[in-house]
Task: structure prediction
Amino acid sequence: MSGARTAEMVIGGVDKGLMFGGKVLEAAGGSTFGVENPATGEVLCEVADATPADAMAALDAAVAAQRSWAATPPRERAEILRRTYELLMARIDEIALLITLEMGKSLAESRSEVIYSAEFFRWFGEEAVRINGSWKINEAGTGRILVTHQPVGTALLITPWNVPLAMPARKVAAAAAAGCTMIVKPAPQTPLTMLMLASLLAEAGLPPGVLNVIPTTSASAATRPLMEDRRLRKISFTGSTEVGRILLRQAAQNVMRTSMELGGNAPFIVCADADLDAAVEGAMVAKMRNIGEACIAANRFYVHAGVAEEFTERLTARMSRLRVGNGTDPGTDVGPLIDAAQRDKVAMLVGDAVDRGARIRTGGAVPGGAGYFYPPTVLRDVARDSRIVKEEIFGPVAAVQTFTTDDEAIHAANDTEFGLVGYLFTRDIERAIRLSERLESGMVGLNRGYISDPSAPFGGIKQSGTGREGGDTGIDEYLDTKYIAVNVAGP
Ligand code: NAP
Result:
């Protein structure tokens, strides 16, 4: 393709330093870490490795910029976000390639991620100019109640590796729209995409100090002093429930505002009356999007006994046709998992399920060679006490169980500490509403496997987290409500 940028050009074009106060800097002491391509195991490049002192310098920069950014007219903030949307879309091929190189998914999936992420900048740009308040006469008629919303202040945003552009985009766009300054700590496996996003925001006009990026291999040591500093007013975290708990405990010290997007264990229920074509299509999306490395990935399939064999057969046929390979190769459907630890965990969960009686319908064996590949796998007759039923798989494995009554399906679906999303396939409208309401999750995919939408409130209940990203309420995570009592004697 003429004019196409090569991997070397794309990697070469990314600033690989720490970014704060509008500058690209080396880490204190000059240390760096390597970013690996999970399809080959090769190191793509070195990135500055922030120390706790660097993190504090980033906090200083963010705090220094807070007042003027909060005072920046909403229309100006909105225009910067809108320009960021345009820059992301204009450079979609190059950014998609960068995502694929450091995270592994296919180029087609990376392009979808860029579009999804760009939409958050457009959406929150539109929200920035619609931060409302209210004004009313108090009950006794002796005064007026003025309610306004103000930016929370400086926020720490910590993100995982699985969706390296969209996870920070959901936070950065909302925080910037609200008037908050921020420090972003990306995952060490995928810092390059975040660094590229930061330079696009600067190009779009984001003032120095509003966004500061600290890639680091010492997450806990680097962020702890920030969490202990009273100038930090907000933590927004996307990652595992285990780390979320640690951060919630730290946030309690200064009673900090928190948003937690944590782990999931999504049930996927197929009722006897479901449209099986739609259910299989939905299963492919809910299971295989992002190579199964998604918090909203279908983790447990509950299929009515009357249709279980047909569903499994059709799903197996579709899964076994997927092409596994390097995400940069045209024609690849399924890229590698992020690293050896993740691949070994998936293999262990499949092994445990098989030991407890599950039958492998396709896949199930780690291939040889370089990279961290695992094949699309379907398991049938999975025992309820298998680890794969209780733990997040984060890989391309569909674990199928059966049920006979709605009560049994709902009871099994809700039998988890997680509550992010549930998927439900039925043609009966009453059953659809009844079961959707009974599912203990923040989101339900009703007769569809794709639920991500910048204009919808994304988030979980139970131990899947608190707060929502996107939608009408997404900006509220970065706003404080202030009530001003006004004394007005008489009518
Ligand atoms: P993770 O181990 O919790 O790490 C997430 C981020 O937190 C990384 O940047 C990590 O850096 C950092 N971190 C780890 N320990 C920390 C500490 N003590 N203090 C400060 N930061 C710390 O999760 P992951 O394995 O990267 O991502 C997978 C998890 O994310 C899954 O559970 C998935 O369900 C969840 N997730 C949830 C959503 C959602 O919206 N609900 C979306 C995507 C992913 P290091 O890697 O350097 O430790």
